[in-house]
Design a protein that fits this description.
Blueprint: E1 2-5, E2 11-14, H1 18-38, H2 42-45, H3 47-90, H4 95-106, H5 114-118, H6 130-148
Antiparallel strand pairs: 1-2
Helix pairs in contact: 3-4
Length: 162
């Protein structure tokens, strides 16, 4: 607290509000220094640090991409709901027409993941029919099974009898 003289000659008390802020700043700086000194060094981690850094960067990129992609997809889906409702109404309740619009607009991905950025999974904006997605995955499963299947005889058993 400081005591100052006013223009009128009387004393006035002023409180220095910077003192608590300065103390808090010093405390936060000390905590940051302790945290940085106590943290393990990246140099000791080697390849694991590079992989962790890559995963972290992909996660951050996916999150930032989702901030743009997610709202765009939501607007598209909302528009599809409205158009699908009108299509159903104007076709006198034909659910096939509305279902096609709903499927194309509502299905698909709403969030970008690191797998989408690395190409391990496909980012689907416009939805697909359930049947076409299942048929594609069933073909993939069948092709992988035939590649790993052992040779069997006419009875359906392999050489081990299984």
């Amino acid at each position: 607290m400081k005591i100052q003289m006013n223009r009128s000659g009387t004393r006035s008390r002023t409180v220095d509000v910077r003192a608590p802020q300065t103390a808090m700043r010093k405390l936060m700086t000390a905590l940051l220094v302790v945290a940085l000194l106590g943290a393990p060094s990246i140099g000791f981690a080697g390849e694991a640090a590079k992989e962790t850094g890559r995963e972290g960067a992909l996660g951050a990129a996916a999150a930032l991409s989702s901030l743009v992609y997610g709202p765009v997809k939501l607007v598209y889906a909302t528009g599809g709901l409205i158009v699908g409702a009108f299509a159903w109404a104007f076709t006198a309740g034909d659910t096939q027409v509305a279902t096609k619009v709903f499927t194309r607009s509502l299905r698909g991905n709403y969030v970008v993941t690191p797998d989408h950025l690395t190409g391990e999974r496909e980012l689907i904006f416009i939805g697909r029919d359930v049947g076409s997605v299942e048929a594609g995955s069933a073909e993939a499963v069948t092709s992988s099974q035939t590649a790993t299947e052992e040779k069997t005889d006419e009875s359906g058993y392999d050489e081990m009898g299984w």
